[in-house]
Write a structure and sequence with these properties.
About 25% of the residues lie in helices and about 30% in strands. β1 and β2 form a beta hairpin.
């Protein structure tokens, strides 16, 4: 699991970006200092985060490197972000309506908090003889077939699906597998909930 680093002090951030840009251009400190009209020692101190520089000096340094101040600071305030990685085969197995009828659900994202906006599942079905009852639930459903062939029912309509096929529908209308034509079946199912739902 990757850990996010706390934001660098501004002097270290500037030094890192300036040095990286200088090295990308194959310039020596003496070259940049000459172009910017700064001392070699000042450029070195900026790169090594040993000094807090004025905006005027920083502007001259950036001009010498062909770097705008906007570009220099473009990553500084970027949100750290946070993502949830679920490795293959490590999805949380959950029981949903229909699970006892011969297929398994692996939840691929675990929502924390009071509201959930979506639920992604890996659905695995491997018994072609199983009979399924249609079911319904709140939200919109998106299916993407990864492996196998299936006839999928939504209301009074039947859809034959193969690998790479997708199906989107209102999940409150009864739906579910009608016939498993080729097993094993592996299908991504994403349920998108209305924003008003808790």
């Amino acid at each position: 699991m990757l850990k996010s680093n706390p934001r660098l002090p501004i002097e270290q951030y500037i030094g890192m970006k300036v040095k990286r840009k200088r090295l990308e251009q194959g310039l020596k400190i003496i070259d940049v200092a000459r172009i910017a009209g700064l001392s070699q020692g000042m450029v070195s101190k900026i790169e090594n985060a040993q000094v807090s520089t004025s905006l005027d000096t920083l502007g001259r340094l950036c001009d010498a490197l062909g770097l705008t101040l906007t570009t220099l600071f473009s990553d500084y305030d970027r949100p750290e972000g946070s993502a949830q990685l679920v490795k293959a085969g490590e999805g949380m197995e959950v029981v949903r309506q229909g699970t006892e009828k011969g297929h398994r659900y692996e939840l691929l994202s675990y929502h924390r908090g009071n509201r959930k906006s979506y639920e992604p599942f890996l659905v695995i079905m491997d018994d072609a003889a199983e009979v399924f009852q249609p079911f319904s639930h709140p939200g919109k459903n998106f299916l993407y077939l990864l492996e196998g062939r299936i006839v999928y029912r939504h209301g009074n309509h039947l859809y034959e699906m193969g690998p790479g096929d997708s199906l989107s529908f209102d999940a409150e209308i009864p739906h579910g597998p009608e016939e498993l034509l080729e097993v094993p079946i592996r299908m991504l199912s994403v349920i998108n909930y209305d924003e008003r739902m808790d």
